[in-house]
Write a structure and sequence with these properties.
With 216 residues, the chain is mainly alpha-helical. It contains ten helices and two strands, in the order ββαααααααααα. The protein has a two-stranded antiparallel ribbon with strand order 1-2. Helix 2 packs antiparallel against helix 7. The chain is globular.
């Protein structure tokens, strides 16, 4: 059965399915305006990149991945001591399995969210994983923005505005990670903590190797 849409933004149809509606309601109740509108823009930018690249992702899976990808930054779902990406990935997989989605598809969404802050690797994986990362990069750091039309960008940001987004998303990153600073090792996330906290000390892989327990 073809997926119907009751909403179209920049020529991109938001799937009108029970899964998508429930995902939207779940995330809207859990996230503030900054993260909610960011998540919707990530889906739309990812879908726009899919269209220009000739990719055909599963729209429902891409939507759920986009909506859940920053859930680990919220107070209700980000209290763990694991990476915030994994909090969102775990919640998305549980949500999909509870809604009867096949394990392989739920695992695909898990991997996409878990890797969405990892450079380069997602682009070599399934379309849903690659396009989630592409949508995130476009909305947060502007990568790929030049490949989209101004009309499409304007339509997306009109539907989901980004007032003072740069400072507000940085604050959201910091709030979601400052209680678990060790999880930022090996990622770009330590840049955020260093920006907000002048006393933050980054781990150094060279020091870890040289001071390991192996005798020399």
């Amino acid at each position: 059965m073809a997926i119907q849409s009751m909403e179209t933004i920049a020529g991109i149809s938001i799937p009108d399915t029970a899964l998508v509606r429930e995902a939207t309601d779940f995330i809207r109740s859990a996230e503030d305006d900054v993260l909610f509108h960011h998540s919707r823009r990530v889906f739309l930018f990812g879908a726009l990149h899919a269209r220009r690249l000739g990719l055909q992702p599963d729209a429902e899976l891409l939507y759920v991945a986009a909506m859940f990808h920053d859930l680990g930054l919220t107070a209700c779902h980000g209290s763990s001591t694991q990476r915030f990406e994994m909090d969102g990935a775990d919640a998305a997989r549980d949500f999909l399995l509870e809604h009867g989605v096949e394990q392989s598809d739920a695992d695909k969404v898990w991997l996409g969210i878990a890797l969405h802050t990892t450079p380069e690797v997602p682009a070599r994986l399934d379309p849903e994983i690659a396009l989630l990362a592409a949508g995130v990069k476009t909305d947060v750091v502007g990568v790929g923005r030049e490949a989209l039309t101004l009309e499409a960008i304007d339509a997306v940001t009109a539907a989901h505005p980004r007032p003072d987004f740069k400072d507000r998303i940085l604050a959201a990153f910091n709030d979601g990670m400052k209680h678990r600073p060790d999880t930022t090792f090996g990622t770009m996330n330590d840049d955020v903590l260093a920006h907000f906290d002048p006393t933050f000390k980054r781990c150094d892989l060279v020091d870890i190797i040289l001071s390991s327990s192996w005798p020399e």
